[in-house]
Amino acid sequence: MAIIPIRRAGDPVLREKARRVRTIDSSIHKLIEDMWETMYDAPGVGLAAPQIGVSLKVVVIDVGNGVPPIALVNPEIVKRSGERKVDEGCLSVPGYRGEIIRSVKVVAQGLDPKTGKEVRVRSEDDLLAEALEHEIDHVNGILYIDYLPSPDALVPMGNAPEITA
Ligand code: ZN
Q1: Residue 157 pLDDT grade (very low, low, confident, very high; cuts 50, 70, 90)
Q2: pLDDT tens for residues 66-111?
Q3: Residues forming the active site
Q4: Which of 71, 124, 139, 157 is the most exposed place for a label (fewest CB within 10 A)?
């Protein structure tokens, strides 16, 4: 396992639509181990592969609160409901946070890297809904700052935001 430097906004890899994983082989398992280690070191509650320079659709999330950690390959949001304001941060935009609108609940779908089988993840937890949207945005080349009404809405991080991922 290794801690990989996290790419920052402005790096083109964060703006690519990441490729789908065709085969979950040992390189994908190694990638996921590196992502866990890098995320916990940061520390953050989620990380997407493009954030460590790998343009593949792979995400890891651990929001705590008794919710088991989740790794998903080729994830997508298949259902969203509700709207709420959240105070969000991103490991690729260090030192800043911003208030944006996220869904209240989401259902995500993807492959469980351990079994290779398709799984659905229902967000029973607000942070999990936010993290799923945040990470799945990353593999589609989207950053939360894209949702800010203006660049002024990006504020220096005084208090920690709800999520940094
Ligand atoms: Zn992020």
Answers
A1: confident
A2: 999 999 999 999 999 999 999 999 999 999 999 999 999 999 999 9
A3: 135
A4: 124
Task: Compute φ and ψ for 113, nearest 5 degrees.
Answer: -65, -20
Q: How far, CA to CA in Å, does 78 sit from each of 60, 82, 109, 130?
A: 18, 14, 7, 14
From ligand 1's centre to the CA of 152, what distance in Å? 19
The answer to whether residues 34 and 52 touch, using CB atoms and an 8 Å cutoff, is yes
How far away, in angstroms, is 34 Cα from ligand 1 center? 16
Rounded to the nearest angstrom, the distance between the alpha carbon of 138 and the centre of ligand 1 is 7
**Domains defined for the chain, CATH in brackets:** 12-156 (3.90.45.10)
Separation of 51 CA from ligand 1 center, angstroms? 8
Q: How many residues does the chain have?
A: 165
Phi, psi of 150 (to 5 degrees): -155, 160
